[in-house]
Amino acid sequence: MSARARDGFDLPPPPDDDDVPVQLSVKLRIGSDTLAVHIRAEVLSAEAQVILHYEATHRAPRISEYKPALIGAFVAQVAIPAIFPFLREGLADATRRIGVKPQLLAVLLPAPDAAWLHSLTQQAALLQAGKAAHS
Description:
This protein has 135 residues and is an alpha+beta fold. The protein has a single domain (2-134), classed as Roll (Bacterial Protein-export protein SecB), CATH 3.10.420.10. 38% of the residues lie in helices and 27% in strands. A four-stranded antiparallel beta sheet has the order 1-4-3-2. Strand 3 (34-44) and strand 4 form a beta hairpin. Helix 1 (68-97) packs across helix 2. It is elongated. The N and C termini lie far apart (35 Å).
C-alpha cells in the first residue's frame, strides 16, 4: 500500500470534478492446483494518491486444465468480489492515516462487462498456453 497526500508530493493532476477515479488492474497466476488473483487499485483524488495491492489464492484440483472462459467467469464473479471489501477497507484506512478526506469505493462492484470478461479469459488462456509450452 502506498498513500501520499498531495501536500509535499509531486502527484499527477487531480480530477476536474468531484468524481474520484479508480483504476483497477487484475493479474492472474495459474498453478496446477491454484489460481492467484492480484488486484492493483490506484485512486487519485484532489487530496491524495493511494495505490493498493491485494491478492487471493484459490485452490481447486487441476485448475490449470479448466477452460479459460470458466476461469475468467470465476475471477469476475467470485474472486474479485471476495477481495473488494479488503480494498475498500485499505483505502479508507490509508486516507485516514495520512489525514485527508476519506475516500470510499462503491459498496458493490458493477457487473462485469463483456470486455472485462474477455480480458480475464484471454489472460487465463495465455497463462495456460505458456504452461503447456514449458511442460
